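Workshop exercise sheet. Pairs work together: one partner reads the sequence aloud, the other fills in the structure field after running the prediction. Swap roles for the next sheet.
Pair: D.N. / O.F.
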Amino acid sequence: MDPTADSVEASSSTVAEPQPSVTPAAPQSEWDKHWEIVTKNPEDFSSWEYLIGLAEQPSAGPISAESPEADKANVRKAYDHFLAKFPLCFVYWKKYAALVLLMDGPSKAEEVYERAVQGIHNSIDLWIDYCEFKARHSTDEEEIRGIYARGAAAVGLDFLSHPFWLAYIQFEESKQKPGNVLTILEKTIATPLRDYQQFFDKYTQVAAALPVKELVSSEEYAQIEGEVRTATQDNEAPQTDEAVEAEVRQRIQASRLAIFNKNQDQIRKRWSFEFIKRTYFHVKSLDEAALSNWRSYLDFEEQEGDAARIRALYERCLVPCAMYEEFWQRYTRYLASQGDIDGARGAFVRATTIFLSPQRPLVHLAYAAFEEEQGQIQEARAAYKRLITAVPGHVEATIKFAQFERRSGKIEDAEEVLSSAISNTEDAKLQAYFTVYKAKLAAQHKLDNDAARQIYEEASSKFLNSKFLWTNWLLFEIHQTSDSALSYSKVLWEAIQTRSTLSSEEKGQLGQRYREFLLERDTTISALNELERELSTLIKPTSSSTSPGSRKRPIEDSGHSHSYKQHRTDEHEHSASASSAPASGYYGSWGGQQGQHGQQGYGGGYGGQSQGQGQSYSGYDQYGHGGSY
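Structure field:
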């Protein structure tokens, strides 16, 4: 038998075996691709805009009532998710309402408008659009009037709200209600508005066409009429009823002119603040000039003392400045100072759930401290946990959470917070920092020095080069008041020399601190002399310290060399950084005192000061990561 033939036959048999068919994966649609992008990065505003454009112009043609249900669903999905993330984008609310009107009719469109004015309650354009929509699609005059009244309450104090007031007046004129028009005009001539003159001119025109008794309430009319008739009697000059009415009309007009003139003064005071380039929300940063103007404007309104105007300006400010922690902190402090705890809580919730991610932690921390002060311990704890979950290992969040649990009497829970932070970060410097704080909790609040010493001992083998840990351990030992402080400190100094991997300079700095301790506490000279010999090999004298005629003593003789003073400063910072109770730095004001045009206070307890957005720890970046000791 031919072996070659067998081989060919086997080969043919193999080739003939049927192969399983593989269906190629369907290509990802443009919609699905961009939906995946915004899902992974919901902060990407440009991708959201592109996705909305895809939803509005599907392959089947522009959205209408006849569009495929899948296309309609994409419109709702894109807008609902986008506006949940960016609720201050009033233009998109208007576009969404218009699309829903096309797809589902007026009833569903009105639901969108109602969501819109909840999402951004002080948008002038949005309220005008909603009112005009209602006027087109409702035959209930009082219902329409109610929407206008709500809009007036929401935006009427805005300096730029004159377009809304004009729309409101036009509606009442279309219904031939001159009395209602006059009531609206009474409000506008007393409200600081940019285009204010036209409202007084309109008031004068409308008032001239109405009977004098319709210009004011019956009580005010009776009062003015009584004054006119009394003046007539005093002059002993009899006048007709027509003359009395004419005089009453003049006095009413004069009183409104006085209101207008007073309002004009208020407008002049605010005019310089109103050169605002961006009054709308955008993810792009504002320039410093714009931020400074908002600060000054808020200062001014607070000095004026009109609570309604102050709140209106804060809410107006928090549209373009929604991404800035300082304005949210300032607003919550103001509301709480006025006794409006619910209002402050509402502002905190808006800030922390919509506008400020945990990567901007100041307001999140301030909210937790606020709830703690209100006695809402569970909500405070939940706020800390949300933040820690989102930014594990964050220095300020971790320490403040541990402080919170300590104040709540839960030392073990505070220790667990620190232990979890140590486990959840790979940054050795952060681990050393949290370990020191954990040891301080044991010593200062559990009054267990042995436990604190054990924490230091176990950590020292892991963080051999951490000057921060060795410094705090040394401070812990030399601050003991018992006689054992001498023996424990001696053992520790030997460990610093033999076990630590600190530089000679760092060891010398710690040795100088140990020398101060021996000078103050030791009863013999031998240990001090031995230390001096050891320090002479670690610290090299400078030329100025040994030169003839130098007024400074050599470093070996001086306990106050420049390097030593610097070290003492560093020690103070390290000690402060691990302090277990800097609550007064933030607790009473939920985040520190307002500095000059910025925040201060959230870093003061940890060797630094907060500056800008999220700066929290000396040597660390704005998210509490990195840095050096």
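Discussion prompt: Residues 1-16, 544-629 have pLDDT under 50 and may be disordered. What would you look at next?
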